[in-house]
């Protein structure tokens, strides 16, 4: 089979297509013939050889949200799973066949598109959980950063489903019309210096909730836009500054919470599985949808990473083996 790995840290060009044997599922695992892979931004950090939680050993095995059909099961897994179309968050995901943990498979509802299916194991559950972690209520205002991205564009739609008003932040002006089309009440380009003022004009008393996966200066400025008793949930740090939360900004009775899907699965597994089923039902009913920026062959994984780093895409990028 073909797979993509990297054997040195660096730019997108280090991603290499290579031939390998089809892996054999171990205890509690299934083997999936891959239909498509959803590319995640965090893998660009791993590929560059980031520090701390962004450091992974070589050879690099890109992660991804895969959708496909189970062809084989390992010990401890029921044989009735063979032939089912599922989605899963997997390592070594840029490949024609991947291994996945049978305990965290998302069964794909009949008729669901591949674009929506790749959102079931990770992106959509994260979008739903960060909104719930913030306790968003009808009529509240929610400031969503990276709103045109793979997770952000789902948060915009889910926030509207909850009856909230949405201020959508994006990194370039070209993405503003996209987030408006998803239901955002206001779109701001946080690449411009006056973006906080635009938010203040729309919400003079402050926004009730900030949902942030950018970090750095964008997060610091956003915390200052929170209303008294406002809540922020941080679930990423694409711009860095993950260790820098200005404590003084919290003295106005604001709170900041962090979210990580791996920890959520570890400490609240039943709730995590229930929410995977919930988002699958929302997609099946057409309540939310996935926007796909590009579908690329596996051999163009480097192009996918380049697009991710340029922040030129909207919605999701897919690889097709």
UniProtKB/TrEMBL annotation:
Signal peptide: none annotated. Residues 10-319 form the Enoyl reductase (ER) domain. GO terms for molecular function: oxidoreductase activity; zinc ion binding. This is Oxidoreductase. It comes from Actinoplanes cyaneus.
């Amino acid at each position: 089979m073909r797979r993509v790995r990297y054997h040195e840290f660096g730019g997108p060009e280090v991603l290499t297509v290579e031939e390998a044997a089809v892996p054999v599922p171990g205890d509690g695992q299934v083997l999936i013939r891959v239909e498509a892979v959803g590319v995640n931004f965090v893998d660009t950090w791993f590929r560059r050889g980031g520090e701390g939680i962004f450091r992974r050993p070589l050879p690099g095995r890109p992660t991804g949200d895969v959708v496909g059909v189970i062809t084989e099961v390992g010990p401890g897994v029921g044989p009735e799973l063979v032939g089912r179309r599922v989605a899963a968050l997997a390592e070594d995901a840029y490949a024609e066949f991947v291994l996945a943990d049978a305990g965290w498979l998302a069964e794909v509802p009949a008729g669901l598109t591949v674009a929506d299916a790749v959102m079931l194991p990770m992106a959509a559950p994260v979008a739903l959980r960060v909104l719930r972690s913030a306790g968003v209520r009808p009529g509240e205002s929610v400031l969503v950063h990276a709103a045109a991205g793979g997770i952000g564009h789902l948060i915009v739609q889910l926030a509207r489903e909850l009856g909230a008003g949405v201020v959508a932040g994006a990194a370039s002006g070209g993405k503003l019309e996209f987030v408006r089309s998803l239901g955002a009440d206001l779109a701001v380009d946080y690449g411009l210096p006056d973006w906080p003022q635009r938010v203040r004009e729309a919400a003079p008393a402050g926004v009730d909730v900030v949902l942030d996966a950018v970090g750095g200066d964008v997060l610091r400025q956003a915390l200052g836009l929170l209303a008294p008793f406002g809540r922020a949930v941080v679930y990423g740090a694409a711009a860095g500054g993950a260790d820098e939360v200005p404590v003084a900004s919290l003295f106005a009775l604001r709170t900041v919470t962090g979210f990580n899907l791996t920890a959520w699965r570890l400490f609240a597994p039943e709730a995590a599985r229930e929410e995977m089923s919930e988002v699958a039902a929302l997609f099946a009913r057409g309540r939310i949808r996935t926007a796909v920026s590009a579908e690329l062959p596996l051999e163009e994984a480097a192009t996918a990473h380049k697009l991710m780093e340029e922040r030129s895409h909207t919605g999701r990028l897919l690889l097709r083996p």
